[in-house]
Write a structure and sequence with these properties.
By secondary structure, the chain is mainly α. The chain contains 14 helices and six strands.
Length: 339
């Protein structure tokens, strides 16, 4: 009987020792860090993959110490074992638990794309086509198909997207980004429309957006926006043609080679504001909030003309005689210096 008790005591002691050894080994893994090949790497967890497979891969790459106890460790950490597919950014020295936590939370890498004030729809298409990890659906769509897919069938796409920086993940498409940019533009335009001056010559917010796009393209210096908007609003009020070069250039499209000629100003298109009165049929670019604000809150005054000084600022004139003098002073002299 004593021999049996002694044997039982030995077995219990061995069991406790083995358990303690396993506990010590597994607990030591809590301090594990990843030694990736570079300071930061982008690591993709494939759809259907699991934590065991990921740990084995890291061990094979030499990022993680090899141990027979990783499977036990994952059993003791069920949350960290429940990882999600996607691409994650890993820095050398990141703790294993922090990386697996991000994978459990689905904290995948967010990429970004920036839309710039004054860009047109061709510019947007070009930058989206080059965006990293962004699913491409827009290149095969016409402008009409794109707007129908975005829920605005029949509307011209120009000016419908707000210039800003947009974040996306690799599960998103270019259409998702455009939908968000369109939502932001709708919100900004509605907010600014509510704060507009009374008695403006716009029947709808869309007409204000058209004007904002012209102001955006005509402004060389931010301080001139409201004054430029004032000139155009007064011209509309007096039934004068806007006579603004950016609309003509937009109407020329791919035919514009960087040199606007007299014949271009005389050739009629729906966007030629020298041959047609009123606003063009659509925006000519993507205006920012400041240009929208200026178009809805134009500066008071009597100026009906303006010309660029050549340094980004603008000279405003109330009469054609004053305007012609400003043109001679600032534009013709500059051309002479150039020659």
């Amino acid at each position: 009987m004593k021999a049996l008790l002694r044997l039982l005591a030995i077995l219990i002691a061995l069991g406790l020792a083995a358990g303690g050894y396993v506990f010590w080994q597994v607990s030591a893994l809590d301090q594990a860090v990843l030694n990736s090949d570079s300071e930061t790497v982008e690591y993709e967890v494939a759809r259907g993959s699991n934590a065991n497979a990921v740990l084995r891969d890291w061990q094979s790459k030499g990022w993680l110490q090899a141990s027979p106890w990783w499977r036990v460790w994952l059993k003791l950490h069920p949350r960290e074992a429940d990882i999600k597919a996607g691409t994650y950014r890993i820095a050398r020295g990141d703790s294993l638990r922090s990386v697996l936590y991000r994978m459990w939370a689905g904290d995948v890498i967010h990429y970004s794309v920036t839309f710039v004030e004054g860009w047109n729809i061709r510019d947007l298409r070009a930058v989206l086509a080059k965006a990293r990890k962004l699913k491409q659906t827009v290149p095969v769509m016409t402008d009409a198909e794109l707007m129908a897919a975005l829920g605005k069938p029949g509307l011209h796409p120009e000016g419908q997207f707000f210039p800003s920086t947009y974040s996306y993940t690799e599960t998103m498409s270019d259409r998702d980004v455009l939908a968000e940019a369109m939502r932001v533009m709708d919100t900004v335009l509605a907010q600014e429309w509510e704060k507009r001056q009374p008695q403006l010559p716009y029947a709808t917010p869309y007409e204000a957006l058209i004007m904002a796009s012209i102001v955006e393209k005509e402004t060389g210096h931010a301080s001139d926006r409201h004054d430029i908007a004032g000139v155009f609003v007064r011209r509309l009020d007096k039934n004068m043609r806007l006579q603004t070069d950016p609309t003509v250039i937009y109407g020329l499209g791919a035919r514009f080679d960087g040199n606007l000629r007299k014949v271009d100003l005389q050739t009629d298109t729906p966007y030629n504001s020298y041959t047609r009165a009123g606003l063009p049929p659509s925006p000519i670019c993507m205006p920012g909030r400041e240009a929208i604000q200026a178009s809805l809150n134009p500066a008071a005054g009597d100026a009906l003309y303006f010309v660029a000084r050549g340094d980004g600022t603008t000279v405003f004139s109330a009469t054609l005689e004053q305007h012609n003098a400003a043109v001679r002073e600032f534009q013709l002299k500059r051309r002479g210096r150039g020659r």
